[in-house]
Each structure stands twice: as structure tokens, then as C-alpha cells.
Amino acid sequence: MSGIQVFDVGRRAVVRGWLAVAAVTLGIFTVMTAELLPVGLLTPIGGELHVSDGTAGLMVTVPGLVAAVSAPVLAVGAGRLDRRLVLCALMALVGAAHVLSAVAGHFAVVLGARVLLGVSIGGFWAFAGGLALRLVPARHVGRATSVIFAGVSAASVLGVPLGTLTGELGGWRTAFAALGALALAVLGGLVLLLPPLPAERGPSPADLGGLLRSNAGVRTGLALTFLVVTGHFLAYTFVRPLLQGRYGIGDDLVGVLLLAYGGAGLAGNFLVGGAAARAARPALLPVAGGLTAVLAALALTTGGTAGTLLLLGWGLAFGGVSVGLQSWFLAAAPDATLAATSLFVAAFCLSIALGAFLGGRLVDSVSLSAPLWAGAALALVAAVAVGRTVIGTTTKGKEAPS
Predict the structure, then answer these.
(1) CATH assignment of 3-396?
(2) Is the model more confident about 399 or about 223?
(3) CA atoms of 350 and 226, how far apart (whole Å)
(4) What is the percent of the chain with per-residue pLDDT over 70, rounded to a whole number?
(5) What is the mean pLDDT of residues 144-171?
(6) Angular region, 318: left φ>0, alpha ψ -120 to 50, beta rest
(7) Measured at the alpha carbon of residue 265, what is the angle toward residues 259 and 268, in degrees to the nearest 5?
(8) Is 50 left (phi over 0), alpha (psi -120 to 50) or beta?
(9) Fewer CB within 10 Å of terminal CB in the chain, N or C?
């Protein structure tokens, strides 16, 4: 075989690998958008199904709790199953859950569908996080991993706003049905573009426990995930009633504002992603500090114009959370990526659930501004913790968490 032929074969392999990366990225975008879709639709869903905004927030809490369990359980229990088959089955479950939600006549049915969704979220994210190593050449692994996890950021900063706009134009059931259709389209992409992915040795329960006991960087990352993600979702889960009830934003503008929030968040994702690839600890400092400042400012603000501008700052700050935290975990445990990622996913999803649950209680029993103050307090603790680690790292001359 000539050198030119070898080059062509190699180039085609790289292209196929990147197409597979794109399919996995769209898959993560889909499952995370599915988890957060109710955020922009709480009020119309609650109104039609006769539940309060706080109770409607359980649509975010329930899949988060299930995903927190399913991530490590499936990572350990998938055994010898081909990872391609597992990912395709989980994506099919996403489609089925959203078809069921779109036709549900009772809130309990929607919650049941959200349980199915939670299984998919935890498993898909945990397996997809380490696939770059098997899809592209070694020199492209870092970039491919960043692309895959950009799907997580894109879901919260673009998926939710687009879902909200769809719901405003055609009703919340249309938004759920559209997400179900997207899941089926992604399923087709996974079938066509993913190569066979025979099972490799996954982590055991002992591996997960050992990582927690022996790796201080992983333990710190879990604590930061809890603080930042819980703080954010205390408030963000109820961003629609916040915009309407506190800032007087009309129904027709909520989707547009969330889309602007999404654009700012996407910018934050790429800004923090580049910095986190060089050093994860310093990259998280402006994220936690920015969330603290924005949430506190929103709690003090009642004007629509000021609230709109702060919403953009909120998107910019949170856009870097998932890529920044994922970089932290990959740097903390470079030789145990699946175990570290499954723990990260479990913590992230559990924090979403906890934030949505606690925020709902505060909204129903205190006020719309209470979750903002609570979220700012948690983000402040995270910012102080990150600041201390950055100072400690600078003093010791190290870059990565250990």
C-alpha cells in the first residue's frame, strides 16, 4: 500500500472518529436538555396539571436523584455489554420518556416518565465521558473530551432556552414531544456513527471507594460540585417565575431572554474551557465568584432592565461550570477517568436535584428572592474554597489538583 493510500485511510479514520464524537456530544446535549427542560416551562405545566411552582420543580429533582444513583451503578454493572448498545438503549429510553410526558394527563405520570429519564441521564453521561480515548487518535483526545462535555454546557445554556421558546409557540407538550423526536434522531446517529465499543474493565465498587479515600483532589471536586451546582439550581430551576413575578417579564419575552442567557453561557463555556485545559483550579475561581456576585445582585434587584442584564452575567458565569469541574476531575484522576467521571456525574445530578428541591421549598414558603440568597451563599463558600486551593497550589508550585 502506498504512502498516499495509508494517509487517506488514516484521514478517513480520523473523520469517522470525529463524527462519532459529534454523535456522542449531541447525545449528551439531548439527555441534559431533557433533564432541564421543565425549568423554562414550570408555570404552564403546573397550571395545566394543577400543581404549584415548587411542586412542579420535582420534575427536575426526580431525574436528578435517579441519575445520581444510575451513574455509578451502571458504570459498575454494565459488565460485558458493548458500550455502543448501552448508549443506544439509554437514548431510546429518553425518547420513550418524553413521548409519555407529552401525552400525560396527570402530574404523577410525568414524574414516572422522569424516573425513566433519570436512568438514561446518569448512564449516558458516565459512559460518554471517557469515550474520546476510544474514538479519536491520542493527539486529539483532549480536544474531543472538551467537545463532548461542551454538550453539557450547551444543554443548560441553549437547550433550555430553545425548549422554552418551543413551549411558548406550541405549548409545553409540543416541547416535550420535540425533545422526544430529537432523542430518536440522535439514536439514529449513534447507530450509524458509533463503532463497536466492546466493554473494557469498568470500575468496581472498591475502585470508587478507593478513589474517594485516597484522592484529595476528587473529594475537593465533589464538594465544589455540590456547592456550585446546588447553589445555581436553587435559583435557576425557578427562573421563569422569577422573571415574571419579580421583574415583570411577559410570557412572550421569557424564551428570548433565556436564549440570550444561553448565548452568554456558551461564551462562558469556551472561555473557561480554554483556561481549564491549562489549569483547572484558577479557572473555577471566576466561575464561583461570578455566580456569587450575580445571584446576590439579582436578589437585590427588582427592575426589569437591570434583571435582564444580570441574567446575561448569570449565563456567562454558569457556562463554565461543567467544563471547569470536569477538567478538575480529569486532572485529579487521570488514570481513573471512568470512575472519576461517574462520581462527578452522580454529584452533579444529585446537586441539581437538591437545588431544585430546596429552591421549591423556599419559593413556596418564603419568597422568590430566597433561593437567590441561598444560592449566592453556597457559591461564596465555593469561591473561598477555590481561592484557598489556588493560593496553596501557587505556594507549592503545582498546577493540577491531586
Answers:
(1) 1.20.1250.20
(2) 223
(3) 8
(4) 92
(5) 82
(6) alpha
(7) 155
(8) left
(9) N
Number of H-type helices and E-type strands within the chain: 19, 0
Contact 150, 273 (CB under 8 A): yes
Q: How confident is the model at residue 9 (pLDDT cuts 50, 70, 90)?
A: low
The grid coordinates of residue 56 equal: 412542579
178-218 tens-digit pLDDT: 999 999 999 999 999 999 888 776 677 787 888 888 898 89
Name the DSSP letter for residue 195: P
- Look at the alpha carbons of 107, 153, 179, 97 in this order and tell me if their dihedral is positive or negative: negative
CA distance 176 to 36: 11
Rounded to the nearest 10 degrees, what angle do helices 321-332 and 280-300 cross at? 150
The secondary element (H helix, E strand) that includes residue 157 is none
Q: Is the pLDDT of residue 237 over 80?
A: yes
d(CA 11, CA 120): 33
Residue pair 157/315 in contact by the 8 Å Cβ criterion? yes
Whole-number Å distance between alpha carbons of 335 and 322: 20
8 A C-beta contact, residue 211 and residue 347: no
Pinpoint the alpha helices (H) of 78-215: 83-103, 107-128, 132-135, 141-154, 160-170, 172-193, 205-214
Structure-block grid coordinates of residue 177: 414531544
Q: Where are the domains of the chain?
A: 3-396
Cα dihedral sign, 125-126-130-134: negative
Phi, psi of 398 (to 5 degrees): -110, 160
User: CA 349, CA 117: separation in Å to the nearest integer?
Assistant: 12
Query: What is the Cα 63 distance to its own chain's centre?
Result: 12
* Neighbouring residues of 301: CB distance < 8 A, sequence distance ≥ 6: 247, 307, 310
Grid-cell match 403546573, residue found: 46
Which pLDDT score, from 0 to 100, does residue 341 have?
79
- pLDDT tens digit string along 71-111? 888 877 776 788 899 999 999 999 999 999 999 989 999 99
Angle formed at CA 270 by CA 266 and CA 275, multiple of 5 degrees: 145
* Identity at 329, one-letter amino acid code: F
Contact yes or no for 317/294 (Cβ under 8 A):
yes
Grid coordinates belonging to 378: 453556597
Element (H, E) at 59: helix 58-77
For residue 147 the three cell numbers come to: 467537545
